[in-house]
Amino acid sequence: MSLALLFIVGGLTSVGLYLITARSLSRVILGFTLLGHAAVVALVTAGGPPGQAPIVGGTTSQIANPLPQALALTAIVISFGLTLFLLALAGRQQQLTGDDMVEDDLEDRRIAHAGDDQVGDSKPGDSAHGEPAEATTSSDDIANAADHSGTSRQAVTAS
Amino acid sequence: MILSRSPIFQLGVQSASPLAVIVGVYLLFAGHNNPGGGFAAGLVLGAVVILRTLAGLQKPTFGPALITGGTLLVVAVAAAPILWGDAMLDQKVVSFDLPLLGTVKTGSALPFDIGVTAIVVGLVIALLDGLSTSDSLVSKGNPA
Amino acid sequence: MSTLVAATILAPLTSAALGMAVRRRAELRDLATLLGLGAAAAASLALLFQVVANGTHVVRVGGWHPELGIVLVADLFAALVLPVALTIIFVVELFAIGQRRTAWGANPELAGPLLGVMTAGVSLAMLTGDLFTLFVAFELILVSSYVLLTHQGQRAQIRSGMTYVAMNLLASTLFLFGLAFVYAATGTVNLALLTERIPELSDGVRLGIGAWFFVVFGTKAAVFPLFSWLPDSYPTAPTTITAVFAGLLTKIGIYAMIRFHTLTGMDRLGSVMLVIAGVTMVVGALGALAQSDVKRILSFHIISQIGYMLMGLGLFSAAGTAGAILFLVHHMPVKTVLFLVGGLIENEQGTGSLDRSAGMAARRPLIAALFAIPALSLAGLPPFSGFVAKFAVISAGIEAASTPVVIAALAAGALTLLSMAKIWIGVFWGSTDDADIDREAAPGNRRTMLAATGLAVAGTLTISLMAGTLFDLSRQASDDLRTPDAYISAVLS
Questions:
Q1: Model confidence over C388-399: pLDDT tens digits?
Q2: How confident is the model at residue C373 (pLDDT cuts 50, 70, 90)?
Q3: How far is residue C338's CA from residue C413's CA, in Å, rounded to a whole number?
Q4: Nearest CA in chain A to B123
Q5: What's the DSSP call for residue A24?
């Protein structure tokens, strides 16, 4: 097992893990891409020592193990598709909020505000993203409005 | 999106895309015994589509049709061996002599690869579609 | 029989492709989707009868040897769970067709084909005989679930969808790393070969692999410390989508766990699993109690119920595994039905919030009845299937003298009953003339939706009636998993 490959796996994993803890979605996507690469290199490393190209020529003792390579190829295909999807999701997020930051968790905010006065949650200018306030602006979208007013109602009862 | 497109970029993409298509098709056929294959071909062809869209040369709309056709082809290749009693996805390899090309060896893996290529290109187009048309969704949602 | 195995995977895939082709013509698309999903469900049911009669059936895809190629193994465990899962998807698609024109409905142009892809993934995940194909099947299911969850592109969906995608993507990456470890340690990813080779490994490596995959499958199954993505994302999706997710996704994680950890004999992880199971049950039930929206309450219950299945698995006894399998079979339809009823409630009143709805029992007694049966079953009251399943798990716990987890299970059961009562009081009781309620908020095809829900409730009642047979089958399936000689010889010979 090659030491260099192990270092590559370790390096990619640590950089990837660091990136996915970021708040910016584009970094998170890069992080997942790197983590995927790390996993693929790990799979190839697991196949044993390097050797000649498998299947075409060479005897069994000389060729590299082809099975992990096939697995790695499949994993690459899957991570390609997922990266595409994540990019689309980040693009949508950018359209909705103007940046690609991950938003605060509603439930967390609600609990954080639980000790405050009741109106704190539903005041329009209260928070940067103002989730409950949006319920009024998107009234053409029934589900959205129902969902949002539902949660803001909940916020009042919870606090 | 992009307000003015560089004519150099446009010209470059226009002249390079036939070459890239040839590379993609080569990869598709070579994939049986050499590096390449349906997925690699699909990526190259998908990249061509993306570049041509960015250069404003075309706006592909046939994504869903490609996904449909590709999936049906793949399913058909997977299911066909069951009809004559073999295991699912079993392969048949045939070789025959052609003028000019010499002996050509191919098999049921080829339509499978073509299906995979179609799905990959279709997904890329669907993504382009999703990214470009979602502008209209913004007015429906809430302005940031 | 090979045809049946192939049909469960290829039929829904075909219907997905056809549905995509005619996606703008509603009738044709719905017909294609229903036919594909129905064919898969029927094939899986036929497969169950075949497996009960003739034993495990193995399909070698492409004719390759199991060490190199993909094998599909229809053993009793897979054949028992698969029909339940596929029937659920079929019923939900029926409901979705009825709900089409409402704001709560998913976009049918996407939902039909994607449900087909997801069905193929579910079949593949349950039938596969190797870990890597399990990974691919997981990805098939998850990718379609990502799109189903976020395709409406509303802000709440994108926000919670991001958490959902990130958590599951991380678990998938860990899965890949785990595959690398397993391959490095044993030289195979085939489950039958792993069953032979993993017990020969040194204790540290073996437990490391077991713990690693416990984390991977545990994230997908939403067990205690790894559940945060679930109650956040599920309620934001359209009802039909949530119903499928609730019935299936986490259960696939538990299914994989039962299969992998039992086959490879990870008994020594049992005590850790029991602790996590106990905490998962109680935390889920407490979380449910704190909510005041039908879908959110039900989402927390998913977590709580996962704890019971994990408890059955963690006991690592024949009775415990059998209980977990029976619980799985009972839980999938019951949970789906409850979410469908939640959808009916939203449809009738324009909200799923408990504070703003009242008096459904008088106005819509049928919906009240449709809710009461699965709710009582979920809480584990006799004579419903939930009682039998809970009894099986808890008695296995008593048999193994694991008192703390039994107490946790009983407490979580009581809490579940309490929050079901909370929904009942909030939604079904009270005065009917509430000015808040928008009576015009039911534009969907109510008859189809009611029929689909009724069909599902009838299904759960059937499971209650057949509890004895199912218990015997679960027991047999658990014996097959715990003494895997027959499994190994079926795959390798």
A1: 888 889 999 998
A2: confident
A3: 17
A4: A81
A5: B
Instruction: Tell me: pLDDT of C131 over 50.
Output: yes
Distance between CA atoms of residues A84 and A90, nearest Å:
10
CB-nearest to C154 from B64, B69, B141 is B141
The pair of structure tokens assigned to C297 is 């309450």
- Produce one character per residue of B30-59: b if its CB has 16 or more CB atoms within 10 Å, e if not: ebeeeebbbbbbbbbbbebbbbbbebeeee
Residue C224's CB is within 10 A of a number of other CB atoms, namely: 20
> Which residues of chain C are within 8 Å of residue B68 when distances are taken between CB atoms?
17-18, 20-21
d(CA C391, CA C384): 11
Rounded to an integer, what distance in angstroms lies between the CA atom of residue C187 and that of residue C46? 35
Break chain B into its structural domains and give their ranges: 7-132
- pTM (2 d.p.): 0.86
- Listed residue (C30, C429, C43, C483) closest to C264, CA to CA: C483
**Partners of chain B (3+ Cβ pairs below 8 A):** A, C
In angstroms, what CA-CA distances link C83 with B112, C38, C78, C128? 29, 11, 9, 15
Least Cα distance to C81 among C287, C234, C251 occurs for: C251
Structural domain boundaries enclosing C344: 2-492
In whole angstroms, what is the distance from residue B83 CA to residue B94 CA? Answer: 19
CA distance C172 to C178: 10
- How many domains is chain C partitioned into structurally? 1
Peptide bond into C383 cis (omega under 30): yes
Widest Cα–Cα separation across chain B:
64
pLDDT digits (tens, 9 = 90+) for C176-188: 999 999 998 988 8
Task: Tell me which chain A residues have a C-beta less than 8 angstroms from the C-beta of B135.
Answer: 95
Q: What is the DSSP letter of C130?
A: B
- Asked if A12 is an interface residue toward chain C (Cβ–Cβ < 8 A), one would say no
- How buried is residue C407: exposed, middle or buried, by Cβ count under 10 Å (0-12/13-18/19+)? middle
Q: What is the pLDDT of residue C434?
A: 52
